[in-house]
Amino acid sequence: xxxxxxxxxxxxxxxxxxxxxxxxxxxxxxxxxxxxxxxxxxxxxxxxxxxxxxxxxxxxxxxxxxxxxxxxxxxxxxxxxxxxxxxxxxxxxxxxxxxxxxxxxxxxxxxxxxxxxxxxxxxxxxxxxxxxxxxxxxxxxxxxxxxxxxxxxxxxxxxxxxxxxxxxxxxxxxxxxxxxxxxxxxxxxxxxxxxxxxxxxxxxxxxxxxxxxxxxxxxxxxxxxxxxxxxxxxxxxxxxxxxxxxxxxxxxxxxxxxxxxxxxxxxxxxxxxxxxxxxxxxxxxxxxxxxxxxxxxxxxxxxxxxxxxxxxxxxxxxxxxxxxxxxxxxxxxxxxxxxxxxxxxxxxxxxxxxxxxxxxxxxxxxxxxxxxxxxxxxxxxxxxxxxxxxxxxxxxxxxxxxxxxxxxxxxxxxxxxxxxxx
Length: 422
What we know:
alpha+beta; DNA polymerase, domain 1; Dna Ligase, domain 1; 3 domains; five-stranded mixed beta sheet; four-stranded antiparallel beta sheet; 36% helix; 20% strand; DNA_pol_Y-fam_lit_finger_sf; DNA-directed DNA polymerase activity; damaged DNA binding; magnesium; DNA damage
């Protein structure tokens, strides 16, 4: 029996939410953009009118204004977007308990088991969901309907905005195979270039390519992409704990990064940012009831935007803010001179190799009572922040760089999609 899989994608999500919240913005060329004074001045989302003027996501705001002189720019409000994302998922969950988020604005839905309760017609259900999202949230969605996740995603991308598209065993060779290979999920620019060098430019050519050729050019990933192109994706729709309790895809890492308002060329500025990021990572670990064995720091150079990372594994997993911050700072200090010769544009701190916080731990013979007290302090600070906001308690080291005083990296953190190859 073919599965009934939907992929729902909220169109121009950030911009649509802003227009739903503020009716005076409807029908005007609108972009949601970062703060230019902190060097985050790029287009994060654009309305249909802005898109018609040639505005592109990811370009600088000054470039967007040059294309569209009457452009209206509003700052992002991630807490509002998360609320709308949750409201959309509540609608999806009224049709199936198998809802898998793919970022804030996209979800897969598996209707296979529940479809008989909704009349047995996946297209009708998709149309009903689309209408409910528009009526209840003021936003539009594009929905793809197919028997697998990859083709459902292709369908939602094929027609935008506000459309329902079915990719079926009867039409996929016409609709999918004639499309550029870059339109297939997880075929990025580097993979597309490798396939092009082998004479593969269309999804149908990838589907019919020699397995040995793909293995030689791309390794095992080549065979996975070939299966995707042939409609042989059988990966399940995996609900996350955020959608329904339990049974979700396990968290593999927790991290946070920031482009600094100015180039980082002093040790005190670098330390302030590292501790600010580590604070967010440790707090999120504790909220998820996890501990990490591995701590990593990522660096982006200010001159050529090149990036690299360093990591180390601790003898015992931890969620302690101080230990994670000191470890990340040690990794950075050992790799960067921080003497002005190599200014940095941004930093990233990540915790991985995770275990549940209630997992048994082997203790040292000399039990560290001070660490136990520090763990209690972290818990007390978490309680204060839940009540009064993340800025109510700040470490002194985080105040060394005045440009970071008003930054709340935890509040503004965005959870990005998790892929098969991640």
